[in-house]
Amino acid sequence: MSDAANAPYVLPGTGWPDDPAEPGTPVAHDAAEVAGLAASAPSLHDLLARQSVCRACDRLVEWREKIAVERRRMFADEPYWGRPVPGWGDPEPGILIVGLAPAAHGGNRTGRIFTGDRSGDWLFASLYRVGLANQPTSVRADDGLRLIGARMAATVRCAPPDNKPTPAERDTCRPWLAREIAAVAASVRCVVCLGGFAWQAVWPALDQAGYTLPRPRPKFGHGAEAALTAPDGTPVTLLGCYHPSQQNTFTGRVTEDMLDTLFTRARSLATS
C-alpha cells in the first residue's frame, strides 16, 4: 500500500490538488449557515470553496468520511476526497447538468462529480461524442478532462448511504445549488436533469435562483422538456434524462443513442 493510502484521513484545506478551499474558508454546520454562506459568497470560486467544506448534515459527514478511511479494495492505494463535491466545468456554460449526488467510490473518492465511476463512463463518453467534452473518459480530477460549454453540479453534494439522501438533507443542500444556478444563469440556456430525483429537486432551486417556472410542474421522463424563463427574461429549456446508472445501462433502459440524442438536443438549445 502506498504512503498516501497509509496517511491518516485529513480535514479540508490541507493541500489536495486544485482544492478550492483554504484554511480560512468558512464552514457551514447547519441549514441556516448553508443558506447564509451560499448567499454571501462573493464569487463562484468562493461558493465552490464553501460547498467543499460543508458539515451541515451529520449523517452525510459521518458516511463520507467513513468511506474515505475504509475505502474499496480496488482503490486501497488511493487517497479519498471524502468531502462535499463542488460543481465544476465551464464557468460560463450554455448547459448545466444536474445529478443526484456523488458516488461513494466515485466523486467521494476523486473530488469531482461523476469522475471515477460507471455512470461517468457513460456520461463523459456521450458528452465527448456530441462535442461537449474534450475526451471520452475521466478517472481522476487531474486527468485533463474539460467540459466544453457545459457545467456539472449535484442536488446533494455529499455521497449518501445507499445513494439515498433524505428530504431534509436535500433541502439543507439546496442553497448551494440555487446559488450556483444563479451564478451561471447569464449564460445557461439548457438545464439537463439526470434522473427523477434531480428533476424534482432542481425546481425549488431554480425558483430560489429567480427563474419563472411553468405550472403545473411537468412530469419527469427521458426527453421531457419544460420551458423556463431566466431572471433576465431569457428562455431556458429544462430537459429530463434517465440517469446513466449501472442499473439503467445494464438493462437497456438507457442506451448510447438515447444519451447522444438528448445531449445533441441540449447543445442545439444552448447554441440557438
Summed up, what is this model?
One of its GO terms (molecular function) is 4 iron, 4 sulfur cluster binding. Helix content is 38%, strand content 11%.
Task: Please give a structural write-up.
Residues 86-263 form the Uracil-DNA glycosylase-like domain. GO terms for molecular function: 4 iron, 4 sulfur cluster binding; DNA-deoxyinosine glycosylase activity; metal ion binding; uracil DNA N-glycosylase activity. Belongs to the uracil-DNA glycosylase (UDG) superfamily. Type 5 (UDGb) family. This protein is α/β, with parallel strands linked by helices and 272 residues long. It has a single domain (3-271), classed as Uracil-DNA glycosylase-like domain (Uracil-DNA Glycosylase, subunit E). The chain contains ten helices and six strands; from the N terminus they run ααααββααβαβαββαα. It has helices spanning 3-6, 31-40, 44-51, 58-70, 107-110, 118-129, 167-184, 196-208, 246-251, 256-271; strands at 88-89, 95-99, 150-154, 190-194, 225-229, 235-241. A six-stranded mixed sheet has the order 1-3-2-4-6-5, sandwiched between helices. Helix 2 packs parallel to helix 7 (167-184). The longest helix is centred in the middle third of the chain and has 18 residues, at 167-184. It is globular. The N and C termini lie far apart (51 Å). Mean pLDDT is 93; it is low at 1-14.
